[in-house]
Records
---
Amino acid sequence: MNWIDKLERKIGRYAIPRLDRYLVIGLIVGYVLQVVGSAVPAFSVLLSYFQFDAYSILHGQIWRIVTWILIPPTGLDIFAILFLVCVLTWGNSLEMLLGTFRMNVLLVGGILICDIGGFLIYGISYLVLGMGIPIYLTTYYILLSMLMAMAICMPDAQVRFWFILPMKMKWMLYFELAYIVYAIIQIFVSTKATLGAAFGVMTILVYCSQMVLPLINLALFFYFMRYHVSRKQKKRKAQFQAQFSEPRPGSGITKHKCAICGRTEKDDPNLTFRYCSKCAGNYEYCQEHLFTHTHIGTM
């Protein structure tokens, strides 16, 4: 039994079905505030109070730990709408595959990992630079990790890339990972060219965090999904297999017996036994009779 199975036995009944839908609804609310905020500045200010900011959280604005899930990753366009539609499809399929509780662990774990990473980066930047740098968090890469989870679980399943191009899930996974690596390299190159060493490194961490943290959560999720075997269980398994591979001491059972002379490995440990491929049946002979016996069942 793995760690997630044990946790499901204790609190599995509190799992929220289709949690991905609520995250999508949160993004829709964020997009509405973003669009309305372009005309009414008060809504734009309201949306800024939802962003993750470690300094503000430490000074009493605790709601920011959760409300950043309403922050849209980009502006509202056709690609954003298609992404939200795809998320609902992925979520339904992945929850049927993993179960409601594991789906909750994947998504809630991604949010917690991002919160922890945000505080760590803020603290490290404060120690290194003397000023805390807040990171911009959205649920885009957390929701994208659902697609990666499906690709890991069903690598040979076929999907339609942008509803047109047929592609196996594993190639979709490779494509997304390559895109993230490319984006990180671009951030590294552009930041290194314009900023100093210490500030440049912290800026890279800030920009790359929202891409890397959900990947860390995904890796931890599948690591804890594995069935870990203790040393005691491994020892018992080895002993059980040994009982079937070797006869029990004192049982009088032998593994080899010559069909001509009847000798076994107990009569002479140096004897070599082989099966004859020309005999009709499983007849085993010692090294002295392997080439001198009369073949059985052949003309």
---
Amino acid sequence: MTAPIITIFGGSGFVGRYIARRMAKRGWRVRVAVRRPSEAHFVRPYGDVGQVEPIQANIRDEASTRAAIMGADVVVNCVGLLYEDSRQKFDGVQAEGAARIARLATECGASKLIHLSAIGADADSDSNYGRTKAEGEAAVLEAFPNAVILRPSIIFGQEDQFFNRFASMAKMSPIIPMVGADTKFQPVYVDDVAEAACIAATTNASGLYELGGPRTYTFRELMELMLTEIRRRRLLASLPFGLAGIMAWGLSLVEVISLGLIKNRQITADQIAMLRHDNVVADNAQTLAELGVSATAAEGVIGEYLYAYRPYGQYDAITESAANLKA
């Protein structure tokens, strides 16, 4: 009961669960603040009995956010959106929600605040995603000047929505459409991001850090890497931005006409705006290295979970070996 307390907003999400696990191993009591605690019980085994607890909090709500922060030594905000819908908007979550967490962290006396943002955060961005990420950063620093801001490039790992999404597409379709085939990315491993957050939470680290892996790839190169891992040949079709914009408009129109029953999770105008710009670590930025984290290459990790998309799944290696013996 004397162990320090950390509250992780979005602690059951893709990045948050890795932070929760690592902080529990460090001996901290972990509050996993989520909208639906009943769906986050899987985090409990990350620590001893009672060490990791899901609690109810909605960052759009003042009272539940304050209750989740009260008594915490460190607060981490991992909440973000990839898509907007009728209830969750970029402004409400990534700007206003981030501001609320920072203000209440100050009022409740938290000693540290770690805010997960993204490379591409820019107040002048054509993308609402990038603009609201920048607004959230500014609000966080205004309310909590010593906050640590982490800006990762695209994050990969077992539960990612990047490699898994395109591998699933490749399993069903002979063509993989790409918007911004030459746009550059610097994918970073989710556990490296989590370790960076934990180090920021437990040391005197301060300021803004841009987190990327050891290699930079074009979008096309990432798709080629994915196809190699899943042992499939597919046509990589580069779509012009103009054509992609028309497709995004049409898909979003279908979502509106269907009153949200058919959701556009393929491509949005906002994503197209982001894909026009490289998503890599700036030359003068503080990085994983300054936090003492050695970046993990995608090649060494993605095969551990993308094997499920191979023609024979987990038995693919056995099948290949048998084919070689037969030959």
